[in-house]
Amino acid sequence: MSHDYMKYASFESPSDVVDWLETETARLWPALLGSLSFRRSPCVRENCPACMSGEQHPSYVLYGRVNGRRLAVYVPEELVPEVRRSLDNGRALQELLQKAAPRYVKALKRERAKAPKTKKV
Ligand SMILES: [Zn+2]
Q1: How far is the CA of 121 from the centre of ligand 1 (A)?
Q2: Rounded to two decimals, what is the model's pTM?
Q3: Which of 7, 19, 56, 65 lies at a 20 to 30 A Cα distance from 71?
Q4: DSSP notation for 46-103
């Protein structure tokens, strides 16, 4: 458990958690989910030196999922760093949301405990 978590966990309110989430997520855009694969494939040209040497042609493909359907999108090499960064952001965002869940629920419970007239179940 992180230092920050221990430091704030005992008194933060739900809106503190929301503020924290907004601050932390602000630097994570664009955030993408998917997987970037590298592959080498042959081309259609005859006597292509790259293909004949076995090197073939490197290319990147982003695999994503839209409405449950797998989707492949070709990614030009010069866009690969940007796509990678966005995928890293996506993973960081997922981790952050995982961390946020217990923190937010604890804050909600703390708030509920403070409200004397709320009927507790
Ligand atoms: Zn070729």
Answers
A1: 69
A2: 0.75
A3: 56
A4: TT-HHHHTT--EEEEEEEEEETTEEEEEEE-GGGHHHHHHHHHHHHHHHHHHHHHHHH
